[in-house]
Amino acid sequence: MLVTKRLPSVAMARLEEACDVDLNDRETFLSHDELVARVKGKQGLIAMLPDTVDRAVLQAGLPDLKVVAAVAVGINNIDAKTAAELGVTVTNTPDVLTESTADMTWALILGIMRRVAEGDRLVRRGGWKAWAFDFMLGTELRGKQLGIVGFGRIGRAVAARAAAFGVRVAYFARTPHAPKVAISEQTQAEPMPLDRLLATSDIVSLHCPLTPDTRHLIDQTALARMKRSAYLVNASRGPVVDEAALAWALKNRLIAGAGLDVYENEPAVLPDLLALENVLLSPHLGSATSETRTAMADLAARNIVAVLTGQPPLTPVNPPAQRAGN
């Protein structure tokens, strides 16, 4: 099997006990052409977020390739539909990164609303001269509305933390749960149409998967619907937000600020965003804790081993077609 980047030792040990492992052990990821070449003859592939597993990669792996395990929840970098047609199982790593990503979302919310990173930059460049009564005033959370777009595991975990800050929760989902969802004893989430959620929320937090329907879901029109005092947070996938439109909205103070952990063309960030103080930029750290990344890698390894030993995958995302001879 092929592993495109070294995993934590517990996952590597699990794989090496069960499989012959071809590991890309260099610092950089494989190019697409290298991935096509190295997947040949492999029964399993563990793919990272930067790996594009498209039809060319999948077909190069046939007839041997049986399973592609993503070390992520979102699989927009993997052509799962084609994989299913070709009889290749695709798995992901849900649940294990829910709490760490929800924590990171609140770090972004607090960081941008209380201007933490902006203050850090000011201190480092020697710009802070003295305490002042009206210096770098931020925005309090208590009494505000958090609008969550996408209400799966991570969206719900973000909502569950809202009561600690005195924040009420609204959400938008393609199939809303009626009439309200009880998140905890202290918190209920109210379903809303997207337009209403954008117009009434003080914080809009994105937790939807990247699909053709959600690409640039937050565009110039959506941003113009938001309150001028509102903040946008994105810890889902970068292309859910039109970055050029966001830079325009921030420059023109159509919204108060934004916290981003993901970007349209990672690792590149739109230069217009880099020049703005009212945006907090984080390098895709949503699941970046030692505990979570180890759990993600181990789940991916367990999925690979299960499929290659004739067992059902633990967390499949596509029902593969039966290949002739299977």
What is the number of helical segments per DSSP (H or I, 4+ residues)? 12
Counted beta strands: 13
* CATH architectural label of the largest domain: 3-Layer(aba) Sandwich
- Helix and strand sequence: EHEHEHEHEHHEHEEEHEHEHEHEH
Mean pLDDT score? 95
Task: Describe what you observe in this structure.
- This protein has 326 residues and is α/β, with parallel strands linked by helices.
- It folds into two domains: 2-95 and 289-308, Rossmann fold, CATH 3.40.50.720; 98-281, NAD(P)-binding Rossmann-like Domain (Rossmann fold), CATH 3.40.50.720.
- 33% of the residues lie in helices and 14% in strands.
- The chain has twelve helices and 13 strands.
- The strands form two sheets. An eight-stranded mixed beta sheet has the order 8-9-7-6-10-11-12-13, sandwiched between helices. It has a five-stranded parallel beta sheet with strand order 2-1-3-4-5.
- Helix 9 links the parallel strand 10 and strand 11 (231-234).
- Helix 1 runs parallel beside helix 12 (290-308), helix 2 (32-39) runs parallel beside helix 3 and helix 5 (98-113) packs across helix 7 (153-160).
